[in-house]
Amino acid sequence: MGSGGARRRSKMTEQQILATASAPGKVVLSGKYAVLVGAPAVCMAIDRRAHVTIAASNSEHHVVSRVGINSKPCRFKSSDGVIEWIDAGDDFALLEVVWETVGLAPTTNVALQLDTSEFSDVATGNKTGIGSSAALTVALTAALDELSSGEQNSNVPELATAAFDAHQKFQGGRGSGVDIATSVTGGLIEYVMIGRKTHQITWPDELAYALVWTGAPASTTQKLDRLARSKPRPSRAALVYSARRLGKAWREGRADNILYEYHDYINVLREFSVDHDIGIFDAGHAELVLAARAAGLVYKPCGAGGGDVGIVLADSEAAVESFLGTALGGNGQVLDARMDVKGVQAE
Length: 347
Fold this sequence. Notes:
Number of helices: 9
CATH topology of the largest domain: Ribosomal Protein S5, domain 2
Radius of gyration: 20 Å
Largest sheet: 8 strands, mixed
């Protein structure tokens, strides 16, 4: 599998399965930070998925466990849709907010298994920055909704709203919701925060790409907090303008125009990063941008900055392969992931 999480699943084979769901991760292709102030963001779902399995439990309490993480299973009770932890539930704060948002009141005790192992680097266990919490939020919301209603993805708009509300609460009100929208919808989308508008986009046949994992995890929350403390600077308005131009290019679907618009967008994004001390191009991203530009390609960071994942774009697969073979060096490794056209799914 290379740098990404191995496709491993732990199956609950001895218990009656009541509900299951999965949802994809994401990489933001344009509009990061600018989406918070009205610009469109373009985001791609990728085939690293969060999985949730809910089974009947013979225990006297509900229980939740995680795959691939050194946390012990936790028991809890639920009254009127509110969780009361019997064991310390700090590792399962996301479950708590989703459970309470859905307002679940199961008539029997259940055992939940949460699996985000596909979002971690195999060698180090570090998160690769491709939206694990959003994907798990969406998968949890879908599985709990199925458990409550007995139907799979019975109302996608309501599911998306519940997942967005839960994730906002989990993040302390931060974030635009683009990662939730992508995990719900799948494929390639344009997203506008105002009104939470999502528009599906077709990937241009002539546009080749590969994802690169820098090896360094980054915290989106810390970056958003730093941005919130910064005074607005002209580069923020410039980033919004450039994100709108790039969003238009993605909608029109011409590979040459998309690649052209990225050059200005990356320059503006770099100025924005310096102005607000965010470090978007740290952890090897800056070197990869220069190497790609010298080779006539485009490379950009996809995460909040200071690590996570980037993407290289070109007008041919051969150009991408050549770049990966010569330019990566110690600045990153290929992330074995592609676009996932499917959004949230019952399994």
